[in-house]
Amino acid sequence: MSDPTPKKRPAKFLAPDLALRPDASDFVEQPELSVITPTRETLPVWLYLVCGFALFLAGSSYAGLDLGPGYYDQGMGGASEATASAGPAPVDTSPMAVGKSLYNNNCANCHQASGAGQPGSYPPMVGSEWVLGSKPMLASILLDGVAGPLSVHGGEFGSNVMPAWSQMPNENLAAIMTYIRGTWGNTGDAVTPDEVAAARTKDASRTQPWAETDLMKMKSEK
C-alpha cells in the first residue's frame, strides 16, 4: 500500500556562479539599451526680449533713471516724476498775506472778516479815521488797547475794552496794520516793523488802555 502523503522533493538550487553564466538554465539575456540623451526645447528670442525690457522698466523706477516726466512711478506707490518735481506750493509771506491771516485769527471775531464791525459794539475798519490816520496812533491802539466808547463815521461804538496786543512781535503788528490799511477799499500806505518799534518805545511805560480823548491828541502824528 502506497503512502498517500506526497513526499516533498528538495528544491534544486543552482550554484550562485552558474546563475550568471550564459549556459545556466535561468539565464535571460537582456537587450542592450541605448543611452537616452535629454533634449531641451529652445524658447523663442522675442520672449527673452520682452522679459528683459519689462525687467529694465521695473528696475529703472527704483534706480531713479530719467525716462521722461510721468513715464514711470518713483517706486512703489510713489507719485509720478511730473508730480514730484512740482513740489509744495509756495507760501505767500508778503505783509498783506501775513496780515490777513493774523487779522482773521485775532481780530475778525469782533471786527468781522469784512472789516464792517458790529453796529453799536465794535467799530468798522472800512474807511475808519483811526485806521487810515496817524500810523503811530494806530500802533498805540494795537499795543495798549482802547477803553470806552469810540466814535467812527460819526457813530459811537461800545464801551468794551479792546485788549492790548503788545505780546505780538513788531513784524506781526506791522503786517496787521498794513492789511487793514490796504484792503476793503482802504488806501493807506504800509506800516514797517520799525514804525511799530518806535511806538512801542514811546509807550513803554504805559500800563492802561487808551481813551478816545487821549488818542485825539495823536491824530496829527506822522
List keywords for this structure.
mainly alpha, Cytochrome Bc1 Complex, Chain D, domain 2, 2 domains, two-stranded antiparallel ribbon, 10 helices
Walkthrough of the structure:
- The chain has 2 domains: 45-82, no CATH class; 95-216, Cytochrome c-like domain (Cytochrome Bc1 Complex, Chain D, domain 2).
- Helix content is 39%, strand content 3%.
- The protein is built from 10 helices and 2 strands, in the order H-H-H-H-H-H-H-E-E-H-H-H.
- The chain has a two-stranded antiparallel sheet with strand order 1-2.
- It starts with 15 loop residues before the first helix and ends in a 6-residue tail after the last helix.
- The model has no long low-confidence stretch (mean pLDDT 80).
What is the fold's blueprint, element by element?
Blueprint: H1 16-19, H2 45-63, H3 81-86, H4 95-106, H5 108-111, H6 129-132, H7 135-144, E1 150-152, E2 155-157, H8 170-181, H9 193-202, H10 212-216
Antiparallel strand pairs: 1-2
